[in-house]
Amino acid sequence: ASYVEYINENKDVIFDTPIYTDGEMDEITVEVARQYTTGYHENVMSFANNIHTHEGGTHEQGFRTSLTRVINDYARKNK
Questions:
Q1: How far is Cα 45 from Cα 7, in angstroms, rounded to an integer?
Q2: Which of 10, 12, 26, 51 has a C-alpha 20 to 30 A away from that of 40?
Q3: What is the pLDDT of residue 2?
Q4: Does domain 2-77 correspond to CATH entry 3.30.230.10?
């Protein structure tokens, strides 16, 4: 989360503290940190085995799909 704070240090952030979560399943560890700003530009940085995946990849697409699904499900259940 501190890296996300560093990236956004000169931006107008909506929440001071980034949202951070981590987990492990089948010996695969995942960490996600995100922070929303008032800007319109999206900046997604993904890493696999500590290597920045500049072109995204299936893990980034899977994250985007899952995040969208979770938010949509929550919105439908909490109208």
A1: 10
A2: 51
A3: 94
A4: yes
